[in-house]
Amino acid sequence: MSATIVIFGASGDLTQRKLIPALFNLCRKRRLPAHVRIVGVARTKHTDQSFLGILREGALKFSGGGWDEDDWTHFARRVHYFPGDASRSEDMGALKNYLAEMENGDANRLYYLSTAPNLYIPITANLGAHGMAAEAEGWRRVIIEKPIGYDLKTALELNDSVHRSFSEPQVYRIDHYLGKETAQNIMFLRFANTIFEPVWNRNYVEYVQVTVAESVDVGTRGDYYDHAGVLRDMFQNHLLQLLALVAMEPPPSFDADKVRNETVKVLNSIRPVPLQDTVRAQYRGYRETPGVAPDSQTPTYAALKLHVDNWRWQGVPFYLRSGKALSRKDSEIVIRFRRPPHLMFELPPGGEFEPNTLSICIQPDEGIHLKFEAKIPDSLRETRSVDMEFHYRDSFKESIIPEAYERLLMDALNGDASLFVRSDGVEVSWRLIDPILRGWESPEAPPLALYERGEWGPLEADELLARDGHKWRHGCGEHE
Ligand code: BG6
């Protein structure tokens, strides 16, 4: 049966930078089934041709790899444009007729909400009201981009409203971090090997760090960002999902619900975070960004200390940090193991004994590093840390790491929701983040720290760890 991908908000940035480049790549890799067509919907007046002109520019810039005009021509035949306001009933009615005529019989449909978030409810309601979520003539699925809600209350409202038109198995909530190869590999590292899982617990792990550092600043997104801030933008979704992959129990299979049951279970085990275990900061110069209030209190950086209250992780702190305008782009997870129970070695002068550290490098230099101690040759009893490294670029030379959206779009077409967030997954992460957001607006809030661009964030974040005798670590690539 043929399938139509209907992209709402098709004239926006995401379509040009991510969605079309991903679909184009899938098409040129011969992964996108021949029967899939793409319909862009937005209010802007375009013809198919003028729309394709814009998409071509995006594909040229963002699809990576060599460019072959024939590949583009082949792909472009599948793409159409429908001008209209999908939050208006008449326009949705017209879109319904347009799609029916194009599909000419039964066809599956994947709706992609890539609009401003305030349109998610009206568009899904409209799809429901026009019978466009009903599955009599093929499956109907809807992909929802982040942000899924602004806080717990609005997330619940969005979930409820979407459920009035679509049942939960029809809904695919994107967290593009779950589509990253390196994030998916966390489950493989843990569960396709026998050597890690036995030590993956409180008996051997001293602490876990999750860092998602960005060198870019807020750029042209001041308007959105100043209302969101780093907790909504990065923690509620990406960082908590990474934490869940590291901390969850092994699911019995890759079945979407079995994986997501484990994700929700572990997120549910996180203890509410006291404000003294949070740091909020803003880079200097942020307030001069267009769209940002001159006295903005919005944090562009945060660090949190979390505890997972279950048998596996009792007493093991999880330190999470993320920020903009930092020293470099670096997303990594560090598992720091405990010191051996008894040391009979000598340290080199000024040296420090380094317990084993496993670093999972999510990006940009994708790979895994295991640091362990080795005897310094020709010394008597001195040790030094050495690094056992795995780099995707060396081990998998033949395959370029695909963009997260390629994998996620194919999964949604194939009906595999394991890398998408279920409604209870969204809710549980908001239950954790919401009280912090409210606390940060209360008189007990920690002061908003300032940090310089191009550095590693505020001193307060170092102090958060220093209280426990720890420090932030970089196990991937360049060191601090
Ligand atoms: C998005 C955030 O979800 O993720 C952005 O809204 C952020 O602010 C981006 O820059 C980071 O994604 P990536 O894939 O570049 O690490």
> Pairing-aware structural class of the strands and helices?
alpha/beta
Largest sheet: number of strands, sense, barrel closure = 9 strands, mixed
Q: Bin the strand percentage.
A: 15-25%
H-E string: EHEHHEHEHEHEHEHHEEEEEEEHHHEH
* Percentage of residues in helical conformation: 25-40%
* Main β-sheet, spatial strand arrangement: 14-13-12-11-7-10-9-8-15
Please tally the β strands and state the result.
15
Average pLDDT: 95
In DSSP terms (H or I, runs of 4 or more residues), the helix count works out at 13
The N- to C-terminal Cα distance equals: 54 Å
Q: Which residue ranges are poorly predicted, with pLDDT under 50 across at least 5 consecutive positions? A: none
Rough shape? globular
> Bound small molecules, which ones?
6-O-phosphono-beta-D-glucopyranose
As a whole number of angstroms, the C-alpha radius of gyration is 24 Å
Oligomeric category? single chain
